[in-house]
Amino acid sequence: MTQLELAKKNKISSWMRQAAKEENVNPAYLRKKIAEGKAVIPANINHRIKNICAIGEGLKTKVNVNIGTSTDESGIEDELKKLEVAIRYGADTIMDLSVGGNLRNIRKKIIKLSTIPVGTVPIYEVSVNQKKKKRDFKDITLDDILKVLHEQAEDGVDFFTIHSGILKKHLKFLKNKVRVLDVVSRGGALIASYMMQKNQENPLYEHFDEILKIARKFDVTLSLGDSLRPGSILDGSDKLQFSELEILGDLARRARNKGVQVMIEGPGHLRLDEIEYNIVMQKKLCSGAPFYVLGPLVTDVAPGYDHITSAIGGAIAASKGADFLCYVTPSEHLRHPSVDDVKEGLIASRIAAHAADIVKGINGAIGWDKAISLARKKRDWKEQIRLSMDPDKALAYRTSSKAELSDVCTMCGDYCSIRLIDNCSKTKLRA
């Protein structure tokens, strides 16, 4: 049985117990959230995961890191280094978005080495296979799709992004050019181009029950992709976006009825003042399913710094109820990310997630801040560095600039406010 089916039968699995321990919650609480469809544990029966991850309501905000080859950068070695960095610096999940090289070999290596859940977008491999066969993507068949899905599930993929919510009825809006940027989702664009060229309905929607059979067999969590997510803040919260979201909500309920765990993907690019409304609408339309957001990026004018624009939006989104943040790197919109880009993007998203967890009152969240604040008060540099989100960078900064006094830093030196007050407090005040 899947984790959802076990939870509905009031059974607590070993993975639920492990995840509950990590979350510092009662296993019965987690079981209830999974049974209600408000939490998921992405864990394929064929993938040995060391770090089990639960995503959803009342749990720590999770962060995903995207890696994978491109058509221009198809080497596997850099991607494996990115995987290592992602795990080292606290990613909760990884997604292999490869489209260059031998995709199955790349995926198998990533799954074998990953101690955290691995996700994919199967339609990418369907497209790559068509290209290798010198066939147009519009000529894909249901068998082509299901074969890739089954193969990836068999290999141990823990969650699939499935772009099943974009339908023929949406295409007329696209043709009318009501958006600045029409479709920025790569998977969504592939499906949209198929439908327009074939004048047929979305095969991932029409044959959703076939996808559910594969997902249930291997307990693959479905992440229902937002093909129509806004790629500009000018397109945020439009009719296209919410029309697709309604369909995703219906599909999520169908998935749960078949025993398949499911979460929903969201925007994208949004103005600050639209973020809360988007969270509220997703939770309402999708019956509280875990919400997985890309950013959201709150402005479009910061190429090279989009890990920051994304972290700003992510902190607000998570504080209002988003459960899962997909990181964005500084190289977003510009190039294939480097290993350093991956680290920078991950740390930015983890900061956003933790800031939100404090607001949400997640068990233990503010305790971390209290511990580092007490170490700062004592000017205990070793403990401050140990408790920091990126101890390596904190140590490098600390050791790169030595103060004359060992218990202060070169920012204030003799005039360290904490030291001044500490010294004064040791002197008895005179009347």
Mean of pLDDT: 96
CATH topology of the largest domain: the name is: TIM Barrel
- Which strand order does the major sheet show? 3-4-5-6-7-8-9-10
Rg, nearest Å: 23 Å
CATH class designation of the largest domain: Alpha Beta
Strand content: 5-15%
Could you explain the architecture of this structure?
The chain has 431 residues and is α/β, with parallel strands linked by helices. It has 2 domains: 45-50 and 59-360, TIM Barrel, CATH 3.20.20.540; 365-425, no CATH class. The chain is 50% helix and 9% strand. The protein has an 8-stranded parallel barrel, surrounded by 6 helices. A two-stranded antiparallel ribbon has the order 1-2. The longest helix is centred in the last third of the chain and has 22 residues, at 339-360. It is globular. The chain starts with a helix and ends in a 6-residue tail after the last helix.
Please give a quick description of this structure.
By secondary structure, the chain is of the alpha/beta class. It has helices spanning 3-8, 14-23, 27-35, 77-88, 103-113, 122-132, 142-155, 168-175, 186-198, 203-206, 208-218, 239-257, 275-285, 306-319, 339-360, 365-377, 381-387, 391-400, 417-425; strands spanning 39-40, 55-56, 62-67, 93-96, 118-120, 159-162, 221-224, 262-266, 291-294, 324-326.
What descriptors fit this protein?
eight-stranded parallel beta barrel; 9% strand; two-stranded antiparallel ribbon; 10 strands; TIM Barrel; 431 residues; globular
